[in-house]
Amino acid sequence: MSDKKYILVVDDDPDLVETVGMMLESKGCEVGMAYDGIEGEESIKKRRPDLIVLDIMMPRKDGYVLCAELKANPDTRDIPVVLLTAVSDAVPSTRYTHADGMSTEADDYIPKPIETESLWDVISNLL
């Protein structure tokens, strides 16, 4: 990648945001960080990311809602979104479902706990 890509990482787990951020920076990307869907939304308004890594289960606004809003907006619908989720483990005990994930039009889906190299493979393919 010749010019630095700006990737926004949105997750309510600061350790995960830090880990993913460090991996992306080591690959030559610029990284923005937000810790819930509202912060993520505000961050996107300030600076348009080249790609968004988005957790699903978050306070205030979850990743499904934010992804659906981004994909419904002509200004942001072409930004690739990679959803991160522990939902597959949590489906029986939460309101989140796989159908929700499929209906958001996310560009890809990575289960938690994440393997940073496989996340990078997905990100570099989408960029």
Structure, explained:
The protein has helices at 14-26, 37-46, 63-72, 87-90, 98-103, 116-126, and strands spanning 6-10, 30-34, 51-55, 81-85, 108-111. It is α/β, with parallel strands linked by helices and 127 residues long. It contains 6 helices and 5 strands. A 5-stranded parallel sheet has the order 2-1-3-4-5, with helices on both faces. Helix 1 (14-26) links the parallel strand 1 (6-10) and strand 2. The protein has one domain (6-122): Rossmann fold, CATH 3.40.50.2300. The protein starts with 5 loop residues before the first strand and ends with a helix. It is 43% helix and 19% strand.
How would you concisely characterize the structure shown here?
It contains six helices and five strands, in the order E-H-E-H-E-H-E-H-H-E-H. By secondary structure, the chain is an alpha/beta fold. It is globular.
Name the descriptors.
five-stranded parallel sheet; 43% helix; Rossmann fold; alpha/beta
Measured on Cα atoms, how large is the radius of gyration?
Answer: 13 Å
**Gross CATH architecture:** 3-Layer(aba) Sandwich
Determine the mean pLDDT.
87
Strand adjacency order, main sheet: 2-1-3-4-5
Which regions have little confidence, pLDDT < 50, spanning 5+ residues?
A: 90-102
Structural class: alpha/beta
CATH hierarchy class name: Alpha Beta
Query: Count the strands?
Result: 5
The CATH superfamily label reads Response regulator
* Major β-sheet profile: 5 strands, parallel
Specify the overall morphology. Answer: globular
Series of H and E elements: EHEHEHEHHEH
Give the count of structural domains: 1
Helix content: 40-55%
CATH topology, by name, is Rossmann fold
DSSP helical segment count = 6
Strand content: 15-25%
